[in-house]
C-alpha cells in the first residue's frame, strides 16, 4: 500500500479552493454525502429512539425523538427474549470458534508459506478451491455429518464447524502476511538451534499479529451474526444464539415493537461500537487484501 | 512483498545458504505435517466429508429416517422440471445481476464522493460502513419495519414528501417484493464496496488527473479515461465478491423478510432447499439442489477468475 494516499488529505490547492465553482462543487459533494449518511444512520437512530419510546409515543410520533425515556423496554426485552442465555451462548460459541480458528489456521498458514515440503502446492490449491465452496450449498450433508458426529444442538460442536467454515479464507489471508516477512530472522534462529515451533510462536507470531487480528475481526462479525448455520444445527432453544433468539422473539410477539427495538439495539450496538473503535485497522486490513498499492 | 535483500536470489533463499540450513530443511516435512494437522482435521470433517456425502446423497431418495434408496440422476432430472425450483433459480439470477450491478455502480459513486471530501472523510466512510457490521437478521428485521405498510418508515416518508400515490405493500406485493429484498441487500453491503473502491481510487496518482485536465478533459472525461481504466482490477474484485455473496448468502435476508413469499415471489434456491429438506423431508432432492447451486457458482467463479488472469489482473 506504499502508493496509497489514504493518510494524505484530499487534493487541496488553497488557491483554487475558494473559487466559486470549486466551492459549489464541494457543497454538492457534501450534500450527496449527507444523503448517504442519513439513509444509513437514520434507520438505526430510529430503532434506538423507538426502543426508548412508549408504544403510544411510537405510533403518534413516528419520526421524532422519544417524549420520555422508557428504559423498562430494555428490561422487558431482555426477559421476554431470554437474552441472558442467548448472549452467553453467542459469546461462548464465538470465542471458542475463534480460538480454534486461530490455533488451526496460524500453523497451517506458516507451514505453507515458509516450509518446503512435498504437497505444499496441493494444500494451497485446496485452500483456494475451498474458498469457492460456500458452506451454504453443503447445508444438507453438513447437517447429516453433524448428526453422525452427535453434535446437533452442541455449542462446542457448532463452534468447531464455524472454525472450519472460516478456515480457508483465514489461511489464505495469514499466508500473505507470512510471505511478506523477511527470511533472515528465522534463518538466524534456526542456526542457533531453535525448533520450527519455537520460531513460529516466539518470532513469527508477534510479527503477524495484525494478520491474526484481521482474521479474528472478520471471524467475529461472521460468526456472531450468523443465522444460517445456527438455524440448521442449533434446534434446542436453550443452546440458541442471539440471531435465532431475535427471530423467535419477532415471530412470537409481533406487537411488542418497543421491546423489539430494544432487543435489536442490545444486539447491534456492541458490534457497531467495536467497529467504530477499531475502524482504522479494520478498513486498512480489508483494503490491503483487495487493493495492491 | 518486502524488498528482497541485495544479492539474495529469489525463491527458497535459505537453501542456498549452505549446509546447516539444508540439513535442517530436511526435517521440515515432519514439522509441516504437525502444523497442518489441526487444519486438515477440521477440513476433512466439515468440508471434504460433507462434500462427498452431499454428492452421494443427491443420487438417492431419502426422507431423513428410512433407508436411502438409490435414484441415479432422478433428483437432478426432476429439478429441471420443477417449477418452484426453476422460479427460485430465476429469482436467484435476478437477485445476483441486480445486486452486482447496483453494488458496483452505487459503491463507486459513494467512493468518488468520499474521495472528493476535503474533511471528515473518516466519519463519512465509517457511517457508510456500519450496516456491513450488522447481522442479516438485524438488518432484515429493521427493514421489515421500514417496509411495514401501516406504520412503516418508507410509506411515512412518501407521505411526508407528498408522494402518497407511491405507497405500497413493499413485501406483500408479488410484483415488487423481490426488488424490495434486493434493495435491503444493497443497503447492507454498499459501504463495503465503497470502502474497497475508495482504497483503489486512492492509489491513482494525482499527476494523472492533472495531466488529463491539462489535456482538456472534464470531470466525466477524467472518470472515463483515467479512473475507470486504472480501477479495472478493483472492479473485478468487487464483482467477484458481490457475485459469490449474492448467490449463497441470501437465505438469512429472504427468510427474515418474506420466507420466500408471497407465493414464491421471493423464493431463492437456498430457501427452497431448506423447505424441501426440513419441511417436506426430501433430503436427497434438497442435496441435489445444493450440488447444482455449487456447480453454477463454482463454474461462474472459475470463469471470472480465468477472465481476470487473461487480462493479467493477478489478485
TrEMBL record, chain A:
- What subcellular compartments does it reside in? Cell membrane
Q: Per the UniProt record, which residue ranges are transmembrane?
A: 23-45, 91-110, 122-144, 156-178, 199-221, 260-278
- Which GO CC annotations does the UniProt entry carry? plasma membrane
Major localization class = membrane
Keyword Cell membrane (UniProt)? yes
Alphabetically ordered keywords of this record: Cell membrane, Membrane, Transmembrane, Transmembrane helix, Transport
Q: What CDD domains does this protein's entry cite? A: TM_PBP2 (cd06261)
* Domain ABC transmembrane type-1 as annotated: residue spans: 87-278
Origin: domain of life:
Bacteria
Which GO biological process categories is it annotated with?
transmembrane transport
Q: How does the protein associate with the membrane?
A: Multi-pass membrane protein
Any keyword Nucleotide-binding? no
Q: Name one Pfam family in it.
A: BPD_transp_1
Q: Which InterPro entries match?
A: MetI-like, MetI-like_sf
Q: Which family does it belong to?
A: Belongs to the binding-protein-dependent transport system permease family.
Cited PANTHER family: ABC TRANSPORTER PERMEASE PROTEIN MG189-RELATED (PTHR43744:SF12), ABC TRANSPORTER PERMEASE PROTEIN MG189-RELATED-RELATED (PTHR43744)
Q: What is this protein called?
A: Raffinose/stachyose/melibiose transport system permease protein
Automatic annotation (TrEMBL), chain B:
The alphabetized UniProt keywords are: Cell membrane, Membrane, Sugar transport, Transmembrane, Transmembrane helix, Transport
Q: How does it sit in the membrane?
A: Multi-pass membrane protein
- GO BP, sorted A to Z: transmembrane transport
Query: What CDD domains does UniProt report for this protein, alphabetically?
Result: TM_PBP2
Where is this chain's protein located in or outside the cell? Cell membrane
Q: Can you tell me where the transmembrane regions are? A: 31-52, 93-114, 126-146, 176-201, 222-248, 283-307
| A Pfam short name | BPD_transp_1
Question: What Gene Ontology cellular component terms go with this record?
Answer: plasma membrane
Q: Which PROSITE patterns does this one have?
A: ABC_TM1
The primary location reported for this protein is membrane
Q: Which SUPFAM superfamilies match?
A: MetI-like
Pinpoint the ABC transmembrane type-1 domain residues.
89-304
The record's comment on protein family reads:
Belongs to the binding-protein-dependent transport system permease family.
By what name is this protein known?
ABC-type sugar transport system permease subunit
Tell me what organism the protein belongs to: Prosthecomicrobium pneumaticum
Amino acid at each position: 500500500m506504499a502508493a496509497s494516499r489514504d493518510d494524505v488529505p484530499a487534493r487541496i490547492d488553497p488557491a483554487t479552493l475558494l473559487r466559486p465553482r470549486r466551492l459549489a462543487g464541494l457543497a454538492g459533494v457534501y450534500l450527496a454525502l449527507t444523503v448517504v449518511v442519513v439513509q444509513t444512520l437514520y434507520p438505526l437512530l430510529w430503532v434506538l429512539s423507538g426502543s426508548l419510546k412508549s408504544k403510544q409515543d411510537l405510533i403518534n410520533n413516528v419520526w421524532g425523538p422519544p417524549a420520555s425515556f422508557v428504559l423498562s423496554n430494555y428490561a422487558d426485552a431482555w426477559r421476554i427474549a431470554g437474552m441472558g442465555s442467548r448472549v452467553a451462548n453467542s459469546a461462548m460459541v464465538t470465542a471458542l470458534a475463534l480460538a480454534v480458528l486461530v490455533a488451526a489456521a496460524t500453523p497451517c498458514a506458516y507451514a505453507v508459506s515458509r516450509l518446503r515440503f512435498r504437497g505444499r502446492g496441493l494444500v494451497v490449491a485446496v485452500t483456494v478451491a475451498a474458498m469457492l465452496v460456500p458452506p451454504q450449498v453443503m447445508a444438507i450433508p453438513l447437517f447429516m455429518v453433524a448428526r453422525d458426529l452427535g453434535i446437533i444442538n452442541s455449542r462446542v460442536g457448532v463452534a468447531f464447524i464455524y472454525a472450519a467454515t472460516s478456515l480457508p479464507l483465514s489461511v489464505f489471508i495469514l499466508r500473505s502476511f507470512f510471505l511478506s516477512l523477511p527470511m533472515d530472522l528465522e534463518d538466524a534462529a534456526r542456526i542457533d538451534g531453535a525448533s520450527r515451533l519455537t520460531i513460529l510462536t516466539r518470532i513469527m507470531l508477534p510479527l503477524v499479529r495484525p494478520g491474526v487480528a484481521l482474521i479474528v475481526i472478520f471471524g467475529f462479525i461472521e460468526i456472531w451474526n450468523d443465522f444460517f448455520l445456527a438455524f440448521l444445527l442449533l434446534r434446542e432453544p436453550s443452546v440458541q444464539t442471539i440471531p435465532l433468539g431475535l427471530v423467535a422473539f419477532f415471530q412470537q410477539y409481533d406487537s411488542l415493537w418497543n421491546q423489539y427495538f430494544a432487543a435489536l439495539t442490545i444486539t447491534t450496538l456492541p458490534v457497531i461500537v467495536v467497529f467504530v473503535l477499531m475502524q482504522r485497522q479494520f478498513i486498512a486490513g480489508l483494503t490491503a487484501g483487495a487493493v495492491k498499492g | 512483498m518486502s524488498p528482497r535483500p541485495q544479492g539474495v536470489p529469489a525463491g527458497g533463499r535459505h537453501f542456498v545458504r549452505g549446509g546447516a540450513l539444508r540439513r535442517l530443511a530436511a526435517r521440515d516435512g515432519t514439522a509441516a505435517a504437525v502444523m497442518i494437522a489441526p487444519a486438515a482435521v477440521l477440513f476433512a470433517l466439515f468440508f471434504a466429508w460433507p462434500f462427498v456425502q452431499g454428492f452421494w446423497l443427491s443420487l438417492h431418495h431419502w426422507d431423513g429416517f428410512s433407508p436411502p434408496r438409490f435414484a441415479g440422476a432422478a433428483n437432478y432430472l426432476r429439478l429441471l422440471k420443477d417449477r418452484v425450483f426453476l422460479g427460485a433459480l430465476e429469482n436467484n439470477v435476478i437477485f445476483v445481476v441486480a445486486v452486482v450491478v447496483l453494488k458496483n455502480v452505487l459503491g463507486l459513486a459513494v467512493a468518488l464522493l468520499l474521495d472528493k471530501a476535503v474533511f471528515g472523510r473518516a466519519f463519512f466512510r465509517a457511517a457508510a460502513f456500519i450496516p456491513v457490521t450488522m447481522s442479516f437478521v438485524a438488518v432484515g428485521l429493521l427493514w421489515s419495519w421500514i417496509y411495514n405498510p401501516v406504520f412503516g418508515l418508507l410509506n411515512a416518508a412518501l407521505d411526508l414528501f407528498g408522494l402518497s400515490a407511491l405507497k405500497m405493500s413493499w413485501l406483500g406485493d408479488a410484483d415488487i417484493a423481490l426488488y424490495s429484498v434486493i434493495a435491503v441487500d444493497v443497503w447492507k453491503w454498499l459501504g463495503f464496496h465503497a470502502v474497497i473502491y475508495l482504497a483503489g481510487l486512492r492509489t491513482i496518482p494525482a499527476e494523472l488527473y492533472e495531466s488529463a485536465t491539462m489535456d482538456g478533459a472534464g470531470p466525466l472525461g477524467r472518470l472515463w479515461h483515467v479512473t475507470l481504466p486504472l480501477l479495472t482490477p478493483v472492479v473485478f474484485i468487487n464483482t467477484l465478491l458481490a457475485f459469490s455473496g449474492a448467490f449463497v448468502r441470501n437465505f438469512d435476508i429472504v427468510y427474515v423478510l418474506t420466507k420466500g413469499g408471497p407465493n414464491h415471489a421471493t423464493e431463492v434456491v437456498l430457501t427452497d432447499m431448506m423447505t424441501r429438506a426440513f419441511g417436506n423431508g426430501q433430503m436427497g432432492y434438497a442435496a441435489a439442489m445444493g450440488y447444482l447451486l455449487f456447480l453454477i457458482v463454482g463454474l461462474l467463479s472459475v470463469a471470472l477468475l480465468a477472465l481476470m488472469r487473461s487480462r493479467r489482473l493477478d489478485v
